[in-house]
């Protein structure tokens, strides 16, 4: 992290490339004079906060770069808490880079990744969980990712952590008061009250830790591998699921070799589908490599959609493959698909297969190419497999912590667990106080009430420059 938090920083806030407009952001004590020194409208130097100025921006030699709009905010009433000027110029790399160069010449320095947000954090504009939400919002790739980021930006994660904190502070206060009077061997705090407070804190922590699963789904999406025998219709199914002709389909078994990935949003979640080579023993070295990759993909997938040609059925080898998989990855949800239902004239056959418990969904991937609704059952099964049904329709803010939060919340929960055991054993208040302090410390690391350079580095280095 840049040590000179008092310098004035500048960066392009918008994406590079051709666009109607670009925004260059400047923050720091010299933000206004830096821009004013290159700006045609002299009033800017004395500008009040929340004012807008139109004028020409010039380079160090006085040459006009562009006619721009400068918006001035005076700290602490700004996004970073410092003086901020946002210069909106015409888009395109040439103009924006020339504006930036002019401002660097005038005394600003290039901002490090996430430095604007870091300054907002340091000036108390956002806590750490909210700052992280800014990055999540920018990188959100699904409706769910967007909603959880907005909830966190609004302080939902921080509020939830605050609620735990409150009950722990209350407990700690009672315990430490008792310690102050330790010599007199009095118990101010009703043991039942302490136990209830800790039980409540533990329950809230459990819920928060559990929300990391939703956080991971919202941020990373779900990786679904389409596996099965050659020619079962995996590639056709992939194309139908994403509504695009992504993978090569042919009647020749062994068509797909490399894994083909494509995405689709289902129920607000991002699903990444991976079409793989058909699983079979083969003398063809290239196909064998494809099969090896298919197995590797299955081993790292979140969900396996196993496609069977309904006209052929599931053979013994496939059954044992699936049985082995169930042992190797007992938590992997497997959705079996009987494909090519259009070819099966005897419906009793499909029912019989379904009764066997091996095959749950009957579809025709080919028909689904022109009728996407034909895969709604599969879409529901996918959401069910990752326990994400109804999330899209859920009202209110979706609280979901990230991996960093989860680790600290787990540690807090362990400390609370120790405190509960100490209490149950009727042992000393000093051990209790220590555990409570440890738990509070971990909570502080989530919101940034407690920080270390290491934590700040880890958080802000994930940002892009200009944010
Ligand atoms: N009638 C019918 N044909 C289908 C259906 N789905 C796929 N097919 C046909 O089955 C053949 C194989 O389809 P693919 O999607 O290439 O099968 P695959 O599982 O990807 O095969 P490999 O890549 O060789 O492993 C093609 O001729 C498809 O048109 C279906 O639902 N009904
Ligand atoms: Mg294929």
TrEMBL record:
Major enzyme class: hydrolase
Domain TrmE-type G: 221-387
EC number: 3.6.-.-
Pfam families the UniProt entry points to: MMR_HSR1, MnmE_helical, TrmE_N
GO biological process: tRNA methylation; tRNA wobble uridine modification
Binding residue positions for Mg(2+): 235, 256
Record: residues binding GTP: 231-236, 250-256, 275-278, 339-342
Positions of (6S)-5-formyl-5,6,7,8-tetrahydrofolate binding: 25, 86, 125, 467
Listed HAMAP family: GTPase_MnmE
Protein name: tRNA modification GTPase MnmE
Native species: Rubrivirga marina
Name of the gene this protein is made from: mnmE
């Amino acid at each position: 992290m840049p040590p000179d938090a008092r310098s004035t920083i500048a960066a392009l806030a918008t994406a590079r490339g051709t666009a109607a407009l670009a925004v260059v952001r400047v923050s720091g004590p010299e933000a206004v004079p830096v821009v004013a020194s290159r700006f045609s409208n002299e009033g800017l130097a004395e500008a009040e906060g929340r004012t807008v100025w139109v004028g020409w921006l010039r380079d160090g030699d006085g040459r006009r770069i562009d006619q721009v709009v400068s918006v001035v905010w005076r700290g602490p009433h700004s996004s970073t808490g410092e003086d901020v000027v946002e210069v909106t110029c015409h888009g395109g790399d040439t103009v924006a880079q020339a504006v930036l160069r002019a401002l660097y010449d005038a005394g600003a320095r290039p901002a490090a990744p996430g430095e604007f947000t870091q300054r907002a954090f340091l000036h108390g504009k956002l806590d750490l969980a909210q700052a992280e939400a800014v990055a999540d919002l920018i990188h959100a790739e699904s409706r769910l990712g967007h909603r959880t980021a907005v909830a966190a930006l609004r302080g939902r994660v921080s509020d939830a952590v605050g609620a735990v904190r409150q009950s722990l502070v209350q407990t700690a206060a009672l315990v430490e008061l008792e310690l102050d009077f330790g010599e007199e061997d009095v118990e101010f705090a009703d043991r039942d009250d302490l136990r209830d407070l800790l039980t409540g804190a533990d329950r809230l922590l459990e819920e928060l830790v559990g929300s990391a699963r939703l956080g991971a789904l919202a941020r990373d999406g779900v990786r679904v591998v389409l596996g099965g025998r050659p020619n079962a219709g995996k590639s056709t199914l992939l194309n139908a699921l994403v509504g695009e002709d992504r993978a090569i389909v042919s009647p020749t078994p062994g068509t797909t070799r490399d894994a083909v990935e494509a995405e689709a949003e289902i129920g607000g979640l991002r699903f990444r589908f991976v079409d793989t080579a058909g699983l079979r023993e083969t003398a063809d070295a290239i196909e064998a490599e494809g099969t090896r990759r298919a197995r590797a993909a299955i081993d790292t997938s979140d969900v396996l959609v196993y496609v069977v040609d309904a006209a052929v059925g599931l053979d013994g080898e496939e059954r044992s493959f699936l049985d082995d998989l169930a042992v190797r990855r007992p938590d992997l949800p497997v959705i079996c698909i009987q494909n090519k239902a259009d070819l099966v004239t005897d419906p009793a056959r499909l029912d019989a297969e379904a009764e066997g418990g091996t095959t749950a969904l009957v579809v025709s991937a080919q028909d689904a190419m022109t009728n996407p609704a034909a895969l709604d059952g599969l879409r529901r099964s996918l959401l069910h497999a990752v326990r994400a049904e109804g999330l899209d329709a859920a009202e209110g803010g979706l609280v979901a912590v990230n991996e960093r939060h989860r680790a600290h919340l787990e540690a807090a929960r362990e400390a609370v667990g120790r405190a509960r055991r100490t209490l149950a054993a009727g042992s000393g208040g000093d051990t209790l106080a220590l555990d409570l302090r440890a738990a509070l410390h971990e909570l502080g690391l989530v919101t940034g009430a407690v920080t270390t350079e290491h934590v700040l580095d880890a958080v802000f280095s994930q940002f892009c420059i200009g944010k």
